[in-house]
Amino acid sequence: MATTRGEALPHAAPPVGEEAAPSVSVVVPLYNEAATVAELYRRTVATLDGFGRSYELIFIDDGSTDTTFVQLERLHDADGRVRAVRFKRNFGQHSAMHAGLVRARGEILVTMDGDLQNSPEDLARLIAGVESGADIASGTRSARRDSWGRTVPSRVINGMLRRFTGAEIRDFGCAFNAYRRSAIEPMLGAIGKQKFTKALVLSGGASVIEVEVAHTPRAGRSRYSPLRLTRIALHVLAGFWPQPIQWIGVALGVLCTTAALVLGGYGVYYWIDRSNFPGPLFGGVGVIFVLGMQGFVLALVGEYLGRIQRDVEGRPLYTIDREL
User: Fold this and answer.
1) C-beta neighbour count of 194 within 10 angstroms
2) At residue 6, what are phi and psi to the nearest 5 degrees?
3) Is 136 in contact with 130 (CB distance < 8 Å)?
4) What's residue 108's pLDDT?
5) How far is the CA of 318 from the CAs of 84, 98, 175, 262, 283, in angstroms?
6) How far apart are CA 292 and CA 301, in angstroms?
7) Architecture, CATH, for domain 24-224+318-323
């Protein structure tokens, strides 16, 4: 079963015989999280039962190669509030997020990671943030437990997103957030294609409140390598910076022209003063500089071309193997 691009959030009354739509939908992408699923379910249910709202849990198995979906089948059999989807292969966290959001029936939609770095006990505070009137309750990791290799690039990306969206929040990368349904619906066609759901919704003018959430160290190695973080930065530029090619082209022209004038002037002076123009050294530096800038521009162009190719081909964001 494949998704349809631009699928609308179902919001009609349930058919006769089905339960009424819950107040809260919790969407959790999973990838090889068999060891944490049971604890995640137990803590989430305990928190939501104590909060006094009707709810559903939507787990998306993003092509796991372990027994994650077996665990989800057991949970579904024991608890009708648990729904589960399994992808045919790994399509990525943001595609999984789309699959969950498009199936969510609640008026408040909560997204969270499945590796227990997010604390399910904070769910009530996020939901209360939306109920207080905000369109988004933005989770902000108060004491982030990641290595500098994750936190430094994250600060750079957060700075870019603040600049491009105009939203002065501290943590765009936290996946633990609550959304009002009406804020998600207009952006559903782009969710999954963009890697920052929160930034995308904020770019549409949604109101936001920041909520401090706990953050625990990840068990095992992070899936975000330096190369992947670089690709995410390029995705941010291509997705949220209007007309970046023009800006980069202007900057490249100014820098290269200025460098050529300075080096040319110095070369003329050196040639006249010492009768020996040091061309090879400065020529090599200039070529390397220009090639480096061209490499960045080509990488950004590649991001655009990849998006155009996906739109032209009309490929689905993901394909589904099973759904409970």
Assistant:
1) 19
2) 80, 20
3) yes
4) 96
5) 15, 9, 20, 53, 49
6) 14
7) Alpha-Beta Complex (3.90)
Look up tokens 């490499």; give the residue: 295
Strands in the chain per DSSP E: 24-30, 55-61, 82-87, 108-111, 136-141, 177-180, 208-213, 320-323
Query: From residue 321, how far is each of 27, 66, 87, 101, 224 by CA, in Å?
Result: 18, 15, 5, 18, 26
For the entire predicted model, the pTM comes to: 0.68
DSSP states along 193-245 = TBS-HHHHHHHTT--EEEEEE-B-PPSS--S--HHHHHHHHHHHHHHHSSSHH
pLDDT tens column, 51-99 = 888 999 999 999 999 999 999 999 999 999 999 999 999 988 888 999 9
Phi, psi of 147 (to 5 degrees): -70, 165
If you compute the radius of gyration of the chain from its CA atoms, what whole number of angstroms results?
24
User: What six digits make up the tokens of 267?
Assistant: 């070369």
> What pLDDT is attached to residue 282?
65
For the chain, what are the domain ranges?
A: 24-224+318-323, 244-313
